[in-house]
Amino acid sequence: MHTLRRSLLAATLALAMVGAPVLARDALPVPPSGVMGIADAQLTPEFWVGRLTAPDAVVLDTAAIAALNAKVARLDPSMHDIRHLPATLPHDRVGAWIAKLSKRPSGALFDAAGKPVPSSAIDAVMDNVALAAIPAEVSPRYGMAVRRTALRGYPTDARVFSHAGDTDIDRFQESTLFPGDPLVIAHTSRDGRWLFVVSPRYAAWVVREDVAEGSADKVFAYTDRTPYRVVTGAKPRTVFTPEAPAVSEVQLDMGTRFPLDTSLPPDQPVNGQSPYTSCVLTLPVRGADGSLSFQPALLQRNQDSAADYLPLTRANVIRQAFKFLGERYGWGHAYNGRDCSGFVSDVYRSMGVQMPRNTSDQSISPGLDHRRFTDADSHDAREKAALALEVGDLVYIPGHVMMVIGKIDGQPYVIHDVGGMSYRTADGTMRHVKLNEVSVTPLLPMMFNDRQTFVDRMTSIVRIRP
C-alpha cells in the first residue's frame, strides 16, 4: 500500500543475457507525455488482449479459486476469520489489535496547511483510543458497512502528513470498507464516534455512522445469500431515488457482491420506478438506532455487473485492470480511488480471488504462489525472472506492486497505481514524470533510485495461476 512518492528514478537497461534479446537504450521512444514506451495504442485493453494466444482460456476455475481462497484464509496472518470468533475475546487480544495499529506517532507530522501538529493534538487522539477502557472480556458485536467508508489508524478525521506541503498521503489513513462488508466491533472510542472493527482483511477504526449492527446470523445470512450480482465495473452507482435516500446513488466498487431481491413483483415499481431495466439488489442500511436492515436498490443493466464472478482469464485480468486506467491514486483508497495493492486486489476480486490487503502482506503471503528475491539473487537472475513474467503476474518492490499485462519485443509492460516514473534518457540524464494515477509503463526502464532499477529491487513475484 505504497505509491513510491519519492522521486522514482528509472533507466533503460541494455540486457545481454543468454537466451534473452538485447534491448538497446533507444529501443523505447519517449512521446510528448514523457511516459517512455507508451503511445495511445498501448492505453487500450484490446491492444494487449490482441497479442495473446487463447486469451479467454481459463487460468483457474471456480474450484481452484475456492481452494486458493481457503488456503489464504487459513495460512495468512493478515486475514481474519470473523465468522468463527469465540463468544468473548480476552482483553489482551483486543488490546493487541488496537495497539499494533494505533501506536503513538514518533515523527513530526503536519496538517493540511503545512503547520506542525502539536503534541497536544496527538495527546487528544491517543486519549480517544481509550485502551484502558477495554474490559477483561469483550463480547464482539457484528455489523456491516452501509457505504464506502475509510478505515483509519486512529479514531479521528484529522489528516496528517509526513512533510509540509505533501498532502497526498494521510498517515492516519489505512484502507476502506465497501457496502456490505461484514465486520466485528471490538471497541469504541472514548468520544463514542468511532468503532474499532475487524473485517476479513483489515482491522482499524471506522466512523460509527457508517456501520449498521446486527446479529452474526443476520450478517452472514446476507453475505451467503443467493442469487447475487457481482460488480464488475470500476465504481458504478445505484440509481437516484428520492423515495429511498439510504440506497440512492450508492457507489459499488469492483468485486463487491450483493444479493438480488427476488421477493418483489417484477411488474411493480421499486423505489418509485419500474425495475425492468435494472437489477434489483439488496443493500444494507442503518436505522436511526444503528440497527441493520435491508432495502432494495436498482443497479441499471447498462452498468457493469455479472451474475457471478468473472472467469479468471488473461483477457479478463487485462480488461478489468484497464477499467481503472487514469483513476487518481489514493493512499489507503483515499480520494475515492485506491492504492497499488488495493488496485490489484480489487481487479482479482472481480474474478473471485480474495487477496490480503497490503503490499507487504501480499508479497509474502504463505497462501499465494510466489518467488521471493533476496540479496543473494544476482542482477542476471532477476532480469531472467522479469523476462519470464506472464500476464496477471504481480511484481513487488519495497512498498509497491505492479500487474503484468504483456510484452513488446520481449520487454514486460505493467499496469499499476503509481506516483510517477523515472528513467535515464538517451544522453544519460535522469527524467522524472509525475503520474499519480493508474498507469501503463514498461517495467525494465523504471528506476528505484539513481543506481538501482525496479528489477534490482524486486522482492517477490506472485502468480495467481497454476
Task: Walk me through what this model shows.
By secondary structure, the protein is of the alpha+beta class. The protein folds into three domains: 25-56 and 311-463, endopeptidase domain like (from Nostoc punctiforme) (endopeptidase fold (from Nostoc punctiforme), Alpha-Beta Complex), CATH 3.90.1720; 79-222, SH3 Domains (SH3 type barrels, Roll), CATH 2.30.30.40; 228-306, no CATH class. The protein has nine helices and 22 strands.
Give the terminus-to-terminus CA distance. 26 Å
How are strands sequenced across the largest beta sheet?
17-22-18-19-20-21
Structural class: alpha+beta
Mean pLDDT: 94
Low-confidence stretches: 5-26
Name the helicity range: 10-25%
Instruction: Tell me the CATH superfamily of the largest domain.
Output: endopeptidase domain like (from Nostoc punctiforme)
CATH topology-level name of the largest domain: endopeptidase fold (from Nostoc punctiforme)
CATH architecture group name of the largest domain: Alpha-Beta Complex
Q: Outline, from the CA principal axes?
A: globular
**CATH class division of the largest domain:** Alpha Beta
Pfam family, one: SH3_6
Protein name: Cell wall-associated NlpC family hydrolase
GO biological process, one term: proteolysis
Keywords: Hydrolase, Protease, Signal, Thiol protease
